[in-house]
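Inputs:
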Amino acid sequence: MIQKLLFLAIVLTVSSALHNPVPMTFANSTPESLEKSGLLAEIENQAAAIKSLTANFTQIRNLSLFSTPITFSGRLAVERPDRLRWEFLQPLPSVLIFNKKTGQRCSPGSDPVKFNLHNDPIMRMVAEQLWTWLKGDYGALEKDYSIEYLGNSTLRLSPKIESTANVISAITITFEKINRQVKKVIINEPEGDKTVITFSEYRLNDTLSPSLFITCFGLD
Amino acid sequence: MALTRAKSYWLWATALLITVLALLLVSRVNINDNALDLLPGEAVRGDLLLLKKLGLMDRIIITLSLDNNSNREEDYQALKSSTRKLGNSLTESPHFTGVLYTLPHRSEFEIYQFIQQRLPLYLSEDDMVNVAELTTDKGIEKALLSAFTLLNSPAGYGMQQLIQQDPLGITALYLDKLNHLRAEYAIQVEDGLFHSNDKKHTLLIAESKKGLTDADSAREIETLLQTIFTQSLSPQIKPMVIGSLPHTLANANAVRSDLKTLLPLATILLLTLLLISLRSIKALLVLAIPFLAAPPAIIITAEIYQNVSALALGFGIVLLGIAVDFAIHLYFGLASTENQEDFLKHIRRPILLATLTTGSVFTVLLFSQVPSHRQMATLALAGIVLAVTYAWFLIPSTVKHNSISKQIVTAPVSTQPSTRSSLIKIIIWSIFIICGLLAWPHLSYNGNLQTLDAPNTIVLEDEKRFRAIWGQQGDQVFVVITSNNLDEALQRNYKLYQYLSANTSSFQSVAPILPSISDQQKNSERWKEYWQGSLPDFQQRFMAKAVAMGFSEKGFLPFFQSLQNLPAAESLLDQFPPGLKTLASSMIRLPQESGDQFLLPTTLTVDNELYSTLLSLEKSDANITLLANKKWRNQVEKLLKKDILVLSLAAALVITLIIVVNFRSFCITLATMAPVISALAAMILFSAITGRELNMMHLLMGIMVIGLAVDYGIFVTCAHQWQISGDSLKAISICAMSSLIGFGALSLAHHPALNSLGITVLVGIGTAWPTAIIVSPAMLNLKKGTRDHAKA
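Outputs:
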């Protein structure tokens, strides 16, 4: 009787082990979560070593308000932790600069529109969004975003804060396999609108001129 | 009359009993100050009561500052958290209301949406001209390019819906007008809090539920605030309060501090004077007379006015000096005469005359337009009548005949100086009077209420610092629309707003966000008419350009639909989102807050031209009131001039009549009135030479001086005529010195109102006294000499 019970216990234990290849005590550490953690760690390590970067980008904006997707191309310059230049070159030049807590928006033929992040809630939100995928500190984002690993060096960020979710429903970021820089960003808005930005020709840790974050046009 | 000792004790016991009873009642008297009691005329008081109803007089403005100009991030965070804690504490306190320190989260978006959904109700005729500009081909191209660029930029996320609904940016055009919701302060809104430009200061505003012009309430609120500050603020954050509160406290403290110091000082000096001059411990009894009279006088005043102001009590110091005069004359006369009964028979008339003249003067003052003057006059009248009564019954019971040392008996009044020396004295006096008359047109009057204010250095420094931090420029005025009907008030307010928009840029008004229902209907009708005619053409041109730029054909359907939808005109106040409610709350008072009507103030800084226009506007519409320091100053100056002339003339006429009826001789009347004429001339000359401007307190004192100075003339004349006592001149001198002590003490007061009283009257009495003992006798001797010569 005891031998039968013991055999039953062994069989049951082995069965459960077969159906649950991961030991019970480690049920939360799925392969996906391990890969996500690993990817996040690599991204953060790379980001920590990079003080500045420049890149070209192509943006395809797919809005219901446009009859067809609109393509813009431009250049990005970042000096961590808080300086950023987002410059469109084609089809319509314009520049957006963030320099610590201030910034400006410029279009040719118009005076620059200066702003202060302390008292401009719209530009503050814009800055937060850009730094979300450019800062490199994705671990810290878990407070405000649910981060999901989709495989193939891709993360999906879903905002937890309602006010952000009203504007952006999800951000999908794909990273380069080698240098772990952002390769592609897909921004999904409610109602189905989508923006796809692809980055290329990265240059890392170059010395960037301070005027990049002060002057809009006429730098070339 | 010879009084038995027992009768004497009974009289004193009765007097003491009355005084003790009065003292017990005095402890229950409400001694308080209301700054409004210093104001003449119902118009000015009416305006200031309106300020009170607006909550402006009870407004407390708090600036929180980083200590030591710190630049550390943690200190900035401490400033923000302290501001929030303080704001919460004030909001939760039952003693404050209307607390303004933050804009709710997402206020900007909510306000934008609120306006955008109701554009047809808001846009005026001028606004539609701007809209027409936007709908031209150039306007459309510019708007579409701007929208296209924005939507493709990182700032475009989430902007699609806003642009779909309003691609022309009509809402943004209207939002500029919301600058008129901002106060004149240079404020940056950061994290919902009101910061200075350098971010080192934050601003909070609250309204006290207790009136801050009342000293007791002000003290209570001050204590509450200090407790809340201690509980809410981090150690490196310093608060600064401006508004009525520090002014009321400074005034109240100045008056009370002055009373505490000057009342004992005047008493000691007076006692010293009497002890030296009378050289008898019975000087204490003489001094006791005004002190016996004062408590019942205070009770009588309190019964009539429900309370007694500390300022009126301050005036009581002077009363000591006046009330003792009668006792001094009686004491001197009785103590230096053989026949006390005969003396009393003769002194009765001048004492009655003097009481009548002094009493008449204070009776005239009861007709002053300033409530505190009327209170002082009542106190003085009651005090003097009681002092005379006490003196008449108590002094004779105390004084033995011939008890004054022969050494202090002076030559009798009837000693004749030469005619030549009398003439010289009169001529010199006349020249002095002519100088006074010539100086009269050079006097200037200052109706500025701030001259009666007694802010201490700290209060003034704080106000200066406040202006430097928040950039407040110049004196502000308020134009207040009042009405029992909200829509009517909003209509008038909107008209005022339209006028001011065309004439000045710097004003604060709720009108841009709160048009009346009838104005909303007009605007809506105008909007409908405009689009009915132009929409098809506009839509065609717009879509052609939009499609060419890459926009979809159906993308702007919500916009074109909104151009045809008309929101219903309604009471917008009830629909405001929280942020707009917060901003509007300080710019509209509902009947439940004001006590009766809807009040809509517009705040602005004006130049002379605009000020004159606003004055005319006020005159043309009973529902418009202009509240301005300049206006009150002009009104007070007018009232002051009128009061000075009318009351001074009335006092002079009454006194002259009394003197003429009694003496029936021009020369004797002139001799009796000479001290009065000298006192007035001296005060005019002093003000003219020193460049001092006359204010309400000078009016009060001028009239009092008439009443005091004539007493000296009466006693000199009576002494001359009826040979009452050779010590009359001495008694007059002691009376004059006692008055000088009283007024001299006031001239040391810190409070400007009390100080004005003291200095000016010091000059007046200081001149009346030598006139009474030099010029009046000279006139009387000249007359007697002429009569004797004629007889001869």
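Remarks. Residues 31-49 of chain A form the longest helix (19 residues). Chain A touches chain B at residues 59, 61, 63-68, 70, 72, 86, 88, 92, 94, 96, 105, 107, 116, 118-119, 121-123, 125-126, 129-130, 163, 166-168, 187, 189, 191, 193, 195 (CB under 8 Å).
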